[in-house]
Here is the input.
Amino acid sequence: MNAPIVGVLALQGDFREHLAVVTRLGAVGREIRLPEDLDGIDALIIPGGESTTIGKLATRFELIEPLRELINGGLPTYGTCAGLIFASSTVTEGNQPLLGVLDVVVQRNAFGRQNESFETDLDIDGFDAPFHAVFIRAPWVEKVGGDVEVLASVQGHPVMVRQDNILGTSFHPELTEDDRIHQMLIEMISRR
Ligand code: GLN
Here is the structure.
């Protein structure tokens, strides 16, 4: 098999860090800014950043519909932090463009001012060692739909979820050296 092509939505946020991870895992990373950049990708990452900005730019560049179509068609997709928010169906407050492909309600900046940024060793379902997770103004998942599996939680709130081909984390594995979650995404390509 040729090296898989992993598209990383590159409108705003820390897409460069994700590109570095997928490259070190032997995949080809591609920056996605326009609908035509989506042609031929095998997986997609939506990075962290500011979900309202990502949503606005995705609307402006007419990416919302093509992204929905690909993800609903089974494209392995991973959203981190703002990317999880943008993929979700609902946010608890306010109104912002969302893809609505992941059946969860998300609360933005959920850990409050005191815990704006923190790191913790997280137990993740199916992983045999904890994952050092970095949270930055992170959301948590407030409610999950029937097809959504919760893979990890903090203080009883889901921070890692999976629904078929879609994976979401409130935290930022691309800021650490632990590539297990990106590896999961790449393994989802071969199981498609
Ligand atoms: N607080 C940001 C938002 O609501 C997400 C932060 C992040 O991606 N690290 O979009």
Q: What stands out?
A: The mean pLDDT is 97.
